[in-house]
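Private note to self, pasted from the team thread so I don't lose it. Backbone tokens:
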């Protein structure tokens, strides 16, 4: 039986804050952010052009190394770090996320190890630089829950205090997030 699990970290920050955290981590491993296109049942990588590629509201990025940009592509996106940048539009800040599905794949073992290190280092940087926890409120049920696992930057907390709505990654509009007034200074 194949061992398969996923891991993720969700966060709120202003879109321009994330490249500052990512760049040194990616550079250390010789990796870069890539955009993926599926063609003929395989995934092909193209180096992301920031900020141009960030303009697409639902753009998903993957960390890749130059050897992955081969013309034949990959069968699966398993064992790659996925990055969704936060999006600020119409006074709504949609959360960002880093995630990774860990399972068997065609990637070389050293590339899998590098991807694990990138995920670990990005998560560590987010946890070091961002605060923990936001209050989630469901507009349909009125229920509230404190999400200790969602991270938030000081700048995002200040934007919230200034009237910016904190929204889910999927942007469904049912759940919005709130910062405790003592955290939004």
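Design output:
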């Amino acid at each position: 039986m194949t061992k398969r699990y996923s891991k993720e970290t969700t966060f709120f920050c202003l879109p321009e804050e994330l490249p500052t955290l990512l760049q040194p981590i990616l550079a250390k491993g010789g990796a870069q952010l890539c955009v993926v296109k599926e063609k003929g049942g395989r995934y092909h990588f193209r180096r992301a052009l920031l900020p141009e590629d960030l303009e697409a509201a639902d753009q998903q990025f993957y960390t890749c190394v130059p050897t992955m940009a081969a013309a034949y592509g990959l069968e699966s996106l398993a064992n790659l770090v996925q990055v969704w940048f936060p999006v600020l539009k119409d006074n709504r800040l949609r959360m960002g996320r880093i995630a990774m599905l860990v399972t068997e794949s065609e990637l070389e073992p050293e590339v899998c190890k590098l991807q694990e290190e990138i995920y670990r280092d990005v998560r560590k940087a987010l946890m070091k630089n961002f605060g923990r926890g936001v209050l989630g409120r469901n507009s349909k049920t009125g229920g509230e829950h404190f999400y200790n696992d969602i991270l938030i930057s000081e700048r995002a907390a200040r934007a919230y205090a200034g009237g910016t709505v904190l929204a889910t990654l999927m942007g469904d509009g049912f759940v919005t997030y709130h910062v405790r007034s003592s955290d939004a200074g």
